[in-house]
Amino acid sequence: MALLLTHATQLLTLRGNGNNLPRRGARMRELGIVTDGAVLVDEAKIVAVGASDEVAKHDLARRQRGRLEEIDCRGKVVLPGFVDSHTHPVFTAPRLVDFEKRIAGATYEEIAQAGGGIRASLLGVREASKQELVVHVLRALREMSAQGTTAVEAKSGYGLSFDAEIKSLEAIREASRQWKGTAVATLLGAHVVPPEYRDQPDEYVRVVCEEMIPAAARGKLADFVDVFCERGAFTPEQSQRILRNAMEHRLGLRAHVCQLTPTDLGPLLQLHPASLDHMDFVSDGDVSALAATDTIATLLPAANYFLGPGAFPPARKLIDAGVAVALATDYNPGTAPTPSMPFVLSVACTHMKMSPAEAITAATYNGACALRLQERKGSLEPGKDADIAIFEASDYRELAYWFGVNRCRQTILGGVPQLVVSQ
């Protein structure tokens, strides 16, 4: 059945100029707002977008009159579903000991050195069955879509052995088949060096390069390979080796970088990664270099919020320099246990001084660019996937204004309306 969303108080189309390039600078503030807007959907694709009276005249709307499923969006803001381009949903339990240690003053690195951090999630993932992991991933995906997210990048990275990482990717694939949204899988075998390789980090890099990556590519289990390039994780040289190997297997590239310490981005940018994520300590020189590329800088302010008082990613410096910026939740058990993109919008505006319009672009269209999905997702335009979020609001700025409450009233995943969220 065809679907018609009509009479939206504000319809944010984020319509572009057809070049599918990342949005940067002033273009991040262009939301393509239509008042009293409508969206016509058929067979999971957007057919028409515009003012309600104009869309009602579309040939499909006239032919299907009486058989259209209509959603009245009066008093609502309608926009493209959020694209959460950085998440870690494959884990089994929250890291509550880490939480308490951090409250008591321990740093991220001190917690890791004491056996907490990423390695604390390792045993649970290794011992869990694939079906147990599927249940957890699927629950996370559904929690995300209840808050307006329709596409998610989902990483492995808490197994840190060949068997556990492949099991994690298989769990992502199985969960995504049971969810109407879009899940993009990323192999993050290079999250940290596991305990059994503590004294042989290069041997673990060999396992990632020669065993994990080929298996993930061969089984079509991953679209991307990620690496945590940071003190205490992987060196720039090790990171480049891993990403070059991913390139050889025709997988996309992304990296956690500059989260805790500065890193020279030049060698990584030469590999043309889709996204470089965190970017808290990026240098001025690297900001200029990044602005000259189509690599997305994906900022993860929920992690900064959860880790406690401290600096946030330099969003204003990046945007004002012309870097294409995306926002994502970093959903994970240690540093960002939130599925809420609206919360991320709020933190981005209040702590990173992004405008609400910039934050929405970063969480939709530029998030799609970070996953190389912008031809299908991230804006409401004819021919694109019908991934739509409906919020109880009369002005788009309310999406970042309200926090601690879910004002998403409905999501459309691939043209399929999901249950209305109770008020």
Span of the ends, CA to CA: 27 Å
Mean pLDDT: 95
What CATH calls the topology of the largest domain is: TIM Barrel
Q: Report the CATH C-level class of the largest domain.
A: Alpha Beta
Q: Can you identify the CATH superfamily of the largest domain?
A: Metal-dependent hydrolases
How large a portion of the residues is in β-strands, by DSSP E?
Answer: 15-25%
Count of domains? 2
**Number of helices, counting only DSSP H or I runs of 4 residues or more:** 17
- Going by CATH, the architecture of the largest domain would be Alpha-Beta Barrel
Q: Which term fits the overall shape?
A: globular
Contiguous uncertain segments of 5+ residues: none
Q: Measured on Cα atoms, how large is the radius of gyration?
A: 21 Å
Total strands = 16
Helix content: 25-40%
What structural category arises from helix and sheet content?
alpha/beta
* Main sheet characteristics: 8 strands, mixed
